[in-house]
């Protein structure tokens, strides 16, 4: 995904790429409610909001605090809440309910220099988005060779909830939102 427009929005708002991705994922999920459901042997259960898990690496494991109702928040609110959740996770000061109820997790290894990876879905969530680093790459744009900030996004999906076509549609819409400058 070309992050030129998203990077401009990030700079203007004074937030991180992670915040922009959370914002864009939340709004894209509004248009893809199937990816907010969870599998149950009795049938699919709809999510009660767009609550995004934010994977936080710790010295002795991984925690996934949940940013609740992410689709209702602006970039500044997302940035504040993400920062508080990550700090709380690292300090071991999160309540148990702060770690439950996500409909999708975002796992971002970009800060670790990882370009792309495949993440494993956290049951009972329907999907997890793996985010690589944003780095300058040579691309063709309007017949010209240019350098642009590019990120690789990989979506893993529980196929009992959604199929590859739904995953592809979500990724295409997410890419369009990021490349369009976050409308």
Largest sheet: 5 strands, mixed
Decide which structural class fits the backbone.
alpha+beta
Quaternary structure classification: single chain
* Strand order, sheet with most strands: 6-3-7-8-11
SSE sequence, one letter per element: HHEEEEEEHEEEEEH
Helical residue percent band: 25-40%
Model regions low in confidence, pLDDT < 50 over at least 5 residues: none
Strand content: 25-35%
- Please state the overall shape, judged from the principal axes of the Cα atoms: globular
How many helices in DSSP terms? 4
Number of extended strands = 11
Task: Tell me the distance between the termini.
Answer: 16 Å
Cα-atom Rg, whole angstroms?
16 Å
**Average residue-wise pLDDT:** 95
Give a verbal description of the structure.
With 183 residues, the chain is an alpha+beta fold. Helix content is 31%, strand content 25%. The strands form four sheets. It has a five-stranded mixed beta sheet. Strands 1-2 form a two-stranded antiparallel ribbon. It is globular. The chain starts with a helix and ends with a helix.
Draw up the topology in text.
Blueprint: H1 4-13, H2 17-30, E1 38-40, E2 43-45, E3 52-54, E4 56-58, E5 61-63, E6 66-67, H3 75-91, E7 104-108, E8 127-131, E9 135-141, E10 144-150, E11 153-157, H4 164-179
Parallel strand pairs: 3-7, 7-8
Antiparallel strand pairs: 1-2, 3-6, 4-5, 8-11, 9-10
Helix pairs in contact: 2-3, 2-4
Key features?
183 residues; alpha+beta; two-stranded antiparallel sheet; 4 helices; 31% helix; globular
């Amino acid at each position: 995904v070309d992050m030129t427009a998203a990077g401009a929005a990030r700079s203007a708002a004074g937030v991180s790429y992670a915040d922009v991705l959370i914002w864009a994922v939340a709004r894209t999920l509004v248009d893809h409610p199937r990816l907010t459901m969870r599998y149950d042997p009795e049938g699919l259960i709809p999510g009660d909001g767009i609550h995004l898990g934010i994977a936080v690496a710790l010295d002795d494991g991984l925690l996934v605090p949940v940013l609740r109702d992410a689709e209702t928040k602006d970039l500044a609110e997302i940035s504040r809440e993400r920062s508080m959740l990550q700090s709380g996770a690292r300090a071991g000061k999160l309540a148990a309910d702060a770690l439950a109820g996500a409909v999708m997790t975002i796992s971002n290894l970009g800060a670790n220099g990882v370009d792309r990876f495949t993440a494993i879905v956290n049951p009972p969530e329907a999907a997890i988005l793996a985010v690589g680093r944003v780095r300058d790459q040579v691309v063709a744009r309007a017949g010209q060779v240019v350098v642009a900030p590019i990120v690789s996004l990989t979506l893993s999906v529980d196929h009992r909830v959604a199929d590859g076509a739904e995953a592809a549609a979500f990724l295409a819409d997410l890419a369009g939102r990021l490349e369009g400058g976050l409308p």
